[in-house]
Specification:
The complex is a heterodimer of chains A (327) and B (345).
Chain A: E1 6-16, E2 29-40, E3 45-49, H1 56-63, E4 71-76, E5 79-80, H2 86-95, E6 96-99, H3 103-106, H4 113-124, H5 129-142, H6 159-170, E7 177-181, H7 189-206, E8 209-213, H8 217-223, E9 226-231, E10 234-240, H9 241-246, H10 251-258, H11 299-303, E11 308-310, E12 314-317
Helix pairs in contact in A: 4-5, 4-6, 5-6, 6-7
Chain B: H1 3-11, E1 25-35, E2 42-53, E3 58-62, H2 69-77, E4 84-93, E5 96-97, H3 103-109, E6 114-117, H4 121-124, H5 131-143, H6 147-160, H7 166-170, H8 179-190, E7 197-201, H9 209-226, E8 229-234, H10 237-243, E9 246-251, E10 254-260, H11 261-266, H12 271-278, H13 319-323, E11 329-330, E12 336-337
Helix pairs in contact in B: 5-6, 8-9
Classes of the chains: A alpha/beta (327), B alpha/beta (345).
Amino acid sequence: MTAPLLDVVRLKKHYPLPGGMFRRGPGSVVHAVEDVSFQVPSGGTLGLIGESGCGKSTTAKLLLRLEDVSDGAIRFDGTEVQRATGPQLRAYRRNVQAVFQDPYSSLSPRRRIGDAIAEPLIAAGELTKEQISERVAELLRVVGLREDAANLYPHEFSGGQRQRIAIARGIALRPRLVILDEPVSALDVSIRAQILNLLQDLQERYGLSYLLISHDLDIVSHMCTDVVVMYLGRVVEAGSMKAVRRSPQHPYTKALFSSVLPAHPDRRPERIKLLGPLPSPINPPSGCVFRTRCPHAQAICAEQVPASVDTGVSRAACHFATPAAVS
Amino acid sequence: MSKADAMAAKVLPLMPEPTPSEPLVEVRDLRIQLRSRDGARLLNVVNGVSFPLHRGRTLGIVGESGCGKSTTALALMGLLPGSARVAGGQVQFAGENLLAKSEKEMRELRGAKISMIFQDPMVALDPLFTIGDQLAEPLERHLKLSGAALRERQVSLLQAVSIPSPETRLGQYPHQMSGGMLQRVVGAIAIACNPALLIADEPTTALDPTAQAQFLDLLARLRDTYQLALIVVTHDFGVTARLCDDVLVMYAGSVVERGPVREIFDHPRHPYTQALLAAIPQAQEDRQGRLRTIEGQPPDLARLPQGCAFAPRCPNVRPKCHELPPPLREMGDGHVASCWRAGEV
C-alpha cells in the first residue's frame, strides 16, 4: 500500500469558554474535535460526513492551519506540519488549498477575477508578470471559462461560473491536496453536475487528492473513494466509500444513510430514527458520545469510550461492532 | 355503535373526509410579470401555469433558480412582491378565484385556510418572542381562542408535530431549539387553524439529512391526518420521490411537464426533465462516471425565445422548436408535456 498523502493522528481541538457570573463557569471546554484520525490517499478523494456541529468544518480549519491544533498530529507527505512555521508552513500551504461553499463571499466584489486568481501566484513570488498573466489565462481555460473573463468582476458571473473561478484560484499553485468544503451546496442541480465533473477532470489531469466535506450523501458517494463519518467531534466510522454505503456498521452511520432521500418513489427506505436531541459538545456524554441517541445503547456505552474495531467492512467505534474473523 | 367501532373512533379522532371529485385548488393559465430592479425591463416569470390539486394529495413543483416555482407559490398566498403583477389566469380555491380577492379578504384566508412554510425557520420565527407567543398569534386572530382553550390548542399542536415536553417548549425562544425542531414549530403554526391547503417552499433545504427526513415524514403525516392539499416547492427530485403524488416541472416560467410521480421518474417526456434526472448523483452509479449536464444558460426572462424556451439548450432540437412554443399535450394517465417531440419517444 502506498503511503497516504495526508495522515491525521488523534487530532484535538478544544475551545475553552470564558468564566463569569452568567457564563458556564471556568473550566468549561467545547470539545469541537476529539481524537480524530484519518488518512487521505494519494490521488483519491476522502469524504468527511456528519451533521451540523459534528466538527467537520473545524477539522478543515485545522488542516488548513487557520486554527491551532490543541493536540495530535497532521502529517503531510510524511512530515509533521501541525506546528510548522516560516518556510515550512508556506510550503505546506501551497500544497494544501481550499474551495468553499459560497464563491460570492470568497471573491472580493471590487477585484477583477484575473487579479483574484493571480493573487496566490504573486504571493508565491516565483513568476514574472507575463508568466502570471499567461498562467491566469491557462487556469481560466482549464476550468472552462473564456480567457477574457479575467477582466470582469464577480457579479458578472453566474453562481456556477464563480465556483469555477474559486477552483481556478484553488489550483493556481499546483497544490497536491484540495479541501472542498460544501463546494456545490449553493448551486442548482444541473450546474452542480458541471462542477462535480470538472473536479473529477482536474483530479485525473493533475493527480489531485481531495478532502470533500459535504452533508449531501449522494454527492459524497458519487465522488469519494473513502469516507469518514463524524459525530459530535469524533470519528464513528471510516472505510471505503462503497463498503460503508452498502453496509454501514455503526448505528449512527446506519441512521444517516437511512435518511437519504429516495432515488425513486418506489424506493422509500425504512428509516432508522434517532432518539432525542444532539447533545452539547461542551459536556459531551461519557463513554460513547452517540449513546444518548442510540437505539442499541447498553450500560457499557456510558462507561467506556468505544475503540475503533476493524469489522472487515470498515473501522467502527462501537462496543457492539463485530470484529472481522481472523483468518 | 359497537364497542369495536367506539374504540376505532377513539384511536382515529379525525376521520378523513372522502376526497371530493372537485379539486380544492385549480390554477388556470397563471401569468405573472415582474418589473426588474432598475424598472427598465418586464420579466415574464410565470407564463401560463395550470394544475389541479385535491385534498389529501401532494404536488411537487420542481425546477432550478428563477424558473418561477416560488413566484407561483407566492401568488397562491397573495404574497407577490410590489414589483410583480398578475398578467392573467385564475387561482380557484374552494370555488373562489383568489386573484380577485382584496388584500383584506386574503388576510382572513392566510394562516387560516391557506398556510405556508418557508425554507429557513430562523427567518420565519421572531427571535424576540417565545414559541408559545408565535403559536398563539394565528389562534387568537382566526379562531379567537384565549385562556385555557388557547393553551390546550398550543400544547396539542406541538404534540401533533412531535415536539417532546411541549409545555416547556412553549416558554422557550427560537435560539433554544435546533433547526429541525424549529421547522416543526413552523409546521405547527402553519396547521394551527386547520388549513385546507399547505404550501411548503424548500421546507428542508436548511436542515441536516436526518432532520430533513423526519420533517418530510411529518409533512406526510399531517397531510394524511388532516387531508391537506399539499404543495411542495423544491429543487430536489428526492423530495418529490419521498412525498409527492404528482410532479410539475418548470423551466423559464413555463410548465414543461406534469404527471404522476412514478410516470415522471420512469417515463420523463421532456428533455429538460430527462436531463435534470440524469444530473443527480446516485449511489449505485460508478464513481468514474461523469454526470450529465445541461449546456448553456436559461433564457433572459425579459426576452423569451419565440418558440420553446428550452430549445437553445435542447439536445433534440428541431427547426419547428425555434418557431412555435409547444403546447402541453396529453401523454396518457394525467401526464402532460410541452415538447414537439414528446410523442416520438
